[in-house]
Amino acid sequence: MPGLETCEGGVRGSPLMDGRAAKERLPARARSAEGRDPDFLIIGAAKAGTTSLFRWLSSVDGVDMARQKELHFFCGDNWKRGLEWYRTWFPPSGRLTGEATPDYTDPMIAELAASRIHDVYPDISLIFIARDPIARTRSHYRHQVQRGRERSPFSVAADPNSLYVVTSLYSRVLSPYLDRFSPSQLLILRFDHLTDAAGSGWDSVQSFLQLPHHPRPGDVYNESALKRQFSRPLLWLWDAGLLPRAESFPRWMRKLGKTVLTSDSSGYRQLMESSHDDLPEPSRARLSDDRRRLADLLGRDIWA
Questions:
Q1: What structural domains and CATH numbers belong to the chain?
Q2: Could you tell me the pTM of the whole model?
């Protein structure tokens, strides 16, 4: 299959299209294309357990997840490839299928993604994982440091208008979806309820998707704090959408690649450790205000 284009390389930084433009941008040939449609989408949040949930669902009998995580169809240049291309990523088994692209709730493009999703799949089920906003902000910062894209300490980088903080404004990124989809179509989970082995999150997912009960798999994946820094070649592979293919390589080859293509300098570790510094007060205040906005939007405080 051709490589994936990420939302970061496609839409981010460009003016947002409104909902009316979404239908016009979907190639006409895709509207009558044959293929498998997803039953559900995991739309975020970034750095909130979407990789773990994707892999857990992949291991469940009765579920065939997309062949790769983060297809970026509804928010990037992959949209131009058409619905027929998108459908090829879902196994034609007849079992429940879905995909996970946290950029569907990227604050810069959530409006566009929600509009496109609703235009193509108005009845689809959506799953959103909400992590404690400050913890998610810290994790997002570490993610960018690991990729060599952030060189300022956390206390400087996490200003109120930074992508780290704004992506944690859940009322903002969920509003486009709540404006278009019924509450029964959107499951909002707390990260801690999902990742805690004794939590109710995994059972909530299975109930929402009408799956028989399965024990929750034990591993939690993709913890940036435990990783080494990307080299430039590795970052290029990531940006090109080629890195997920490495999961099919033998274990020894993956281990060698991590050794050769990553580093662990003292400067890198200092930046990673700075993520534990206090969040600037203006950023903390903005997140607190969003908690109230989200409670008003949902009619309940999910953090209570």
A1: 7-141+163-220 (3.40.50.300)
A2: 0.80
